[in-house]
Amino acid sequence: MSETISCRQTLAVTSHRVLASDLNEHETVYGGALLSLLDGTASISASRFARSQCVTAALDQVNFIKPFVLNDSLCIESYVTGHGKRSLEVFVKVIGEHLDTGERFLGMTAFLTFVVLDKQVILPELSAETLEEKSLCADFQKREAYRRQKIAEQKKLQASLSLDFPWQS
C-alpha cells in the first residue's frame, strides 16, 4: 500500500519585494522574471511530493491577472494537484500586496508539469483537504487530457519545422 501525502504537505511559499531592477519598460514586473520565480517555488512542491529529482516539463495555463509594481510584495504559493506514474502537476498562485495600503490581490496563476527522473520512484497518493485543493484536484484529469492532446499537436508541428538558418540560404 502506498503512502498518502496531502496537498498541504507539498505547499511551498516564497515572498519577494518588487524592486526597480524587477521592472520592465511598462514599470511592472517583467513576466520572464516572475516565471523564473514561480518555477523555482513549484519545483520545491514537486520535490516534496516525489522525494526525488524532478524537472519542469511544461508550463500551462499561465494567467497574468494583475500587474505587480514597484514596492509591491508578491507571495508565491504552490502545491501538487495531481499526478500520473512519473509526472505531476503543481498549481501556483501569486498573491500581490500593495505594501503602502495592505491591499492584496491575485496577480497570477499557472499549472506546471514536472517529470520524475528516476523511473523506479513510485509516487504517493494525493489527498486534498481545503475547498480550493479539492476543486483543483477534481479537475486534474481534464487538464491532463487537454495536455496530452496539446502534446500530440505539438509533435506534429515539430515534425514540420525547419532547422535551417534562414540567413544561410
Structural account:
There is one protein chain. This protein starts with a strand and ends in a 9-residue tail after the last helix. The chain has helices spanning 31-50, 131-138, 140-160; strands spanning 4-6, 12-17, 54-64, 72-83, 87-98, 104-116, 125-127. The strands form two sheets. It has a five-stranded antiparallel β-sheet with strand order 2-4-5-6-3. Strands 1-7 form a two-stranded parallel sheet. 28% of the residues are buried. It is α+β, with helices and mostly antiparallel strands and 169 residues long.
Features:
alpha+beta, hydrolase, EC 3.1.2.20, 36% strand, HotDog_dom_sf, 169 residues, two-stranded parallel ribbon, 29% helix, 5-stranded antiparallel sheet
Question: How is this structure best summarized?
Answer:
This protein is of the alpha+beta class.
Secondary structure layout plus pairing:
Blueprint: E1 4-6, E2 12-17, H1 31-50, E3 54-64, E4 72-83, E5 87-98, E6 104-116, E7 125-127, H2 131-138, H3 140-160
Parallel strand pairs: 1-7
Antiparallel strand pairs: 2-4, 3-6, 4-5, 5-6
Counting helices, strands and paired strands, the structural category is: alpha+beta
Q: Give helix % range.
A: 25-40%
Helical segment tally? 3
Estimate the mean pLDDT confidence: 95
Q: Helix and strand succession? A: EEHEEEEEHH
Head-to-tail CA distance between termini: 60 Å
Strand content: 35-45%
User: What sort of overall outline do the alpha carbons produce when their principal axes are compared?
Assistant: globular
Rg, rounded, reads 18 Å
Largest sheet: number of strands, sense, barrel closure: 5 strands, antiparallel
**Weakly predicted, low-confidence segments:** none
Largest sheet, spatial ordering of strands: 2-4-5-6-3
Query: What is the number of strand segments?
Result: 7
